[in-house]
Design goal:
alpha/beta
Length: 302
């Protein structure tokens, strides 16, 4: 099996850009050359690696090669830096150091609370350009499998094949609302009927935390009217503004609880365990990022 760097790079570009023409433009070659490289790659591995749809997507066999391409790009970039000089070398100004692209995936609440400071330190200490894919913690591991991300914050306790896994701790969610909202919608306390009527704030349609908490409080599945606010900071602001009740990370809502702007609607919480998964590569960058992520999570998560 003769897999070339040229073929892998072209495959990754086609999947990233979605069309052969766009991939050709990003690689500064012709669409015909892109097609020839993909055909040569498919001939080398004896498999179809792309679905010729709009947008173009990788087949399961193609996803394996896309992962290899992403990993190769990182290792090649680290090698280039090693030839230029160590990132901390005094004789290499930061502006002269090539930036290394490193894609990761995370849920929005982690990014808004504890992950961003870790990424900021990572950027200060290394010549990197991290690309963050935001998705629900139950779905972020899919980006590892597809090769779009080299590491991810996920709620899956089982490692993706080829990945290492570290437990980060649990993020605690508290169901809260404003005092005015509680007086209006839950004046006689919690029961299934009042909870089914009371407006609820959800992050998006992949967010199951609110409905799981609602079902736990009601004693059965219910379907309250929902407002969708797909951004972490704006989500808890929506709850503070009285749009509905919602389950908010305790670290985000602590000040509002102390000030009385919101109150728990019940003596209840949900802990969501989080894990850090990353591809097993001999990459000093990934190893250092892992150390920073674990330290950052340890300071906030339970």
């Amino acid at each position: 099996m003769d897999i070339t760097q040229e073929g892998l790079r072209t495959l990754a570009a086609v999947v990233r850009e979605g069309t052969f023409d766009a991939a050709a433009a990003s690689l500064h070659i012709t669409p015909s050359a892109v097609s020839q490289r993909i055909k040569a790659l498919e001939a080398a591995v004896g498999r179809v690696v792309l679905r010729r749809t709009k947008p173009v997507t990788a087949t399961p066999d193609g996803e394996i090669l896309v992962r290899l391409a992403r990993q190769w790009e990182l290792l090649l970039a680290e090698t280039r830096v090693a030839f230029v000089g160590e990132p901390a070398a005094d004789d290499v100004p930061v502006t002269a150091q090539p930036r290394m692209h490193l894609p990761i995936a995370t849920n929005a609440d982690s990014l808004a609370t504890w992950l961003l400071p870790a990424l900021a330190r990572f950027h200060r200490e290394h010549p990197v350009a991290v690309e963050v894919f935001r998705d629900d913690e139950t779905r972020s591991s899919a980006l590892l499998r597809s090769g779009d991300a080299l590491a991810a914050v996920t709620s899956e306790p089982l490692a993706v094949r080829g990945c290492a896994l570290h437990s980060l701790g649990s993020m605690r969610y508290l169901p809260v609302a404003t005092p005015e909202f509680i007086d209006t919608w839950l004046p006689d306390g919690l029961d299934a009927e009042s909870l089914a009527r009371a407006p609820m704030v959800q992050f998006d349609r992949n967010d199951h935390i609110q409905r799981n908490i609602a079902a736990a409080l009601a004693g059965r599945p219910i379907d309250p009217p929902a407002t969708y606010i797909p951004a972490s900071t704006e989500y808890h602001r929506a709850v503070e503004l009285g749009i509905g009740w919602g389950a908010v990370p305790d670290v985000q809502i602590e000040d509002a609880l102390d000030d009385g702007r919101v109150r728990p609607i019940a003596d209840h919480h949900m802990d969501v365990p989080l894990y850090w998964q990353y591809w097993k590569l001999s990459s000093p960058l990934l190893h250092h990022l892992t150390d920073l992520v674990i330290d950052g999570a340890r300071a906030v998560l339970r």
